[in-house]
Amino acid sequence: MADDADKRTASTEPGARDYRETVFLPQTDFPMRAGLPQKEPQILAKWDEIGLYQAARKARQSAGAPLFVLHDGPPYANGAIHIGHALQKTLKDFVVRSRFALGYDVDYVPGWDCHGLPIEWKIEEELRSQGRRKDEVSKAEFREKCRAYAAHWIEVQKEGFKRLGVIGDWENRYATMDYGSEAAIVAEFHKFVMSGQLYRGSKPVMWSPVERTALADAEVEYHDHVSPTIWVKFPVAQGSDAARNASVVIWTTTPWTIPANRAIAYNEAVAYSVFQVEAMEEGLEFEPWAKPGDRLIVADKLAEDVFKAAKVARWRRIEAVDCRGMVCEHPLAALDTHYAFSVPLLAGEHVTDDAGTGFVHTAPGHGADDYLVWLAHGHREIPETVDPDGAYYPNVALFGGLKVLETEGKKAGKFGPANNAVIEKLIEAGALLARGRLEHSYPHSWRSKAPVIFRNTPQWFIRMDQPLDTPQHGGRTLRETALEAIEATAFYPEAGRNRIRTMVESRPDWLISRQRAWGAPLAMFVDKETGQPLHDEEVNARIIAAIAAEGADAWFTRPAADFLGAHDPERYEKVEDILDVWFDSGSTHAFTLEGRENTRWPADLYLEGSDQHRGWFQSSLLESSGTRGRAPYNGVLTHGFTMDENGEKMSKSKGNTVDPHQVIKESGAEIIRLWAAMVDYSDDQRIGKTILATTADAYRKLRNTLRYMLGALAGYSEAEAVALDQMPPLERFILHRLQELDLEVRAAYEAYAFQDVIRPLIAFCQEELSALFFDVRRDALYCDMPSALRRRAARTVMDLVFERLTVWLAPLMPFTTEEAWATRFPDAGPNALRVFPQTPAEWRNEAEAARWAKVQAVTAVVTGALEVERREKRIGAALEAAPVVHIADPELLAAFEGLDPAEVFRTSQASLVAGEGPAGAFRLAEQSKVAVEPRKAEGRKCARSWRVLPEVGEDPRYPDLSLRDAEAVAAWDAAHGEAGAA
Questions:
Q1: What is the DSSP string of 746-776?
Q2: Ordered alpha helix ranges (H), 629-752
Q3: How many CB atoms lie within 10 A of CB 559?
Q4: pLDDT tens readout for residues 288-340
Q5: Where on the phi/psi map is residue 164: left (φ > 0), alpha (ψ -120 to 50), or beta?
Q6: Which pTM does this prediction carry?
Q7: pLDDT tens sequence across 127-180
Q8: What DSSP element (H or E) covers 98?
Q9: SS3 at position 535
Q10: CB-hemisphere CA count at 13 Å for 484?
Q11: What is the Cα Rg of the chain in Å?
């Protein structure tokens, strides 16, 4: 190894000359220990000084480079960056830097999502700590506090991202709360208004009482939840003779919706019958609600399950039932005339006999299927039973004011007393048949993590299935347009296409209104007489101008007359809902890619986590498809989630999180970047102390490769360069590998396959540079004369390797490659501004590749034989050996033509013999055609190179050197005026 070089050149003979000064040992100021936490900020300061990102753009534009646009998916401006942020922004930086290195001009403007509930909550908490309520604060003051909060975290996150080495147009970052951004978002909304795609509908939507707003599908996630289950009897009021004395039984996990029941759904393809209870189970600890003689109507297939739940021991089937035209009474009708209405049975295909009773309790204000089947049968009035705070309206008999969900205090997000109250009243009315509990998947808000409910409210929607008569749509619906756009988009990985396609195919109309304060408004007027939005471009223009000048606050603070012009303000309702934040972020392409210099629409790439198929990727797709007839991107790249080392989700409560700031403080941002490069980002990745330690080890090996080359190339100049046709075989092979790697690296970067960049380069550094090229040529580099062809050729190739390795690795490891480049070429300009050099096609040499595959196969057997000799202490080092290598394969033997086998085997002497070799020779099972006799080298040890050769001492000027070393020292002495050179 290089560290042994100065030891092995010192003679142990008394009075002998010390030859260390004559050996060309590696010399470099590039330290072995990186000190990244201290070094990286210095490099960042230099990049800031020259304006690296803008300098790169200017250089590429001057060269007429093609444009590449990466549009930034905005992180939410709330809290310090976490490891998920670090992965995502690092991947984006890989894209930006690699495209610059491939010769592109890259437009990348970092941005932030600023509106929405999480920030509102923070401000509400702040107000509560001051003894103030939100409703005691003006909307203008509240929004200003939200704006200041978001602005603070933008700056904090920006510094965190820059510390990771992420470059971009930071000085011109975008934020959805900027006045110009808010104006552009509202302008995009107006396009939907004016095209007729927007409508107001009163229907059940997912509602978060805790957040007091409607939620879109993308804002909902599902978690396991334990719900009460009840079987309820609805007495038949109209039906066949057998049915009249019976009750239809329904099953539900939402007892609180019973007051909102208006119908029962059934399926015409399901068989139903009247069953009579004959006997109850005995020995029960409670009195069951069913009684012998009760007549119950359920699906035939589910009768046994129902009676088991009701503790019925024996029953008999009376007759089949035709549910058409059947009408029931509400189960609470006996307790209050509020419920004295008819409950019809309605046919619906959503009903199955897989579970429950075969009937579906239908509350059209609290379920999508319930709503649709209610409308399908000609009903229009939708009852409203639950208010925005998750409590029954006062006019709901028996239950007015009771909470379905708690919204305040320690119980916020928990189910309130409504369920139990309803169950108790059903028992009182004699309508409960059975009860139980069920653990099932239940919708929760992905922000508050609290359960949500379906609640009927008037909301604004964008139609998915209305044909659009515009030039960009040509009669296609928004759904059809989006699905065609998906097919035209490149996905990395390809599986992302099916995921987003499935979501778009089945999604409902886009719910875009929210009943909150902090966001861009649905800035429009609605005719109080017709209920239709006002279509007036002049009014819209005044709204946009005011928001651009004063921000969205202008809509909430200015009177309607400021916008309506000649229209009568008394006739129009000013809508003060805010837009879904997904509409905000889905519109970012409109003000980041359009209307700016040196960019273009659509973007080449959007890059985010895989959860954004339902989020930003989809909202951007729908917004752009609705306004422009295509997606705002040509490609979509997704990464998985970051888990701990055991594959478990990170959680502060578990203590298994990885703080990127701490990793940077201890090891440097380069370690996070190298980890991100080495993982398969398309799947969930793992990170933790052990994984980071492995990453750091890989980093050290790469750093030492660069360090060794810097040391070995000390003093190198073009005057030393050796032409290709004069190169020895080993150097030709390394050039061949450079040519292969050049194609691999370019293709991998083009496909965003960063793992396919770093892993081959690590393997190249370890297997072909360190273990072969450096090891074989170490003696030549240290001990050959500077003018020797072998040494010059090795340094020529090493120069070419260094030139490429520092730029190939630069997008992934910019700090280390910058340091290495500046160490060697302090006046050459930043490494980060370089482009991949052209690698000549004539370097490709399949014959040398085939030769060295054979040579290394033989070398593996020799190495195995020498390891045995060392283990048995018959030799101390490989330089004490002179193996006789028997090769029975002519092709393997021919591979050594023109090579010095002793140099290849790293021994002092070696000989090759054709044939099988003696029976006792060393062999490897996988290479039976090679046998090695591990003999000791004959002669004396050279005091300079430590090679054992018979020729040592033949040059009388240097009696302790080999002839090669004697010539080299003589040349050194002559150059330095030393005696003995003659």
A1: HHHHHTT-THHHHHHHHHIIIIIIIIIIIHH
A2: 660-666, 669-678, 689-712, 729-750
A3: 9
A4: 888 898 889 999 889 888 888 888 888 889 888 888 888 999 999 989 998 98
A5: alpha
A6: 0.84
A7: 888 888 777 888 889 999 999 999 999 999 999 999 999 999 999 999 999 999
A8: helix 83-101
A9: coil
A10: 14
A11: 39
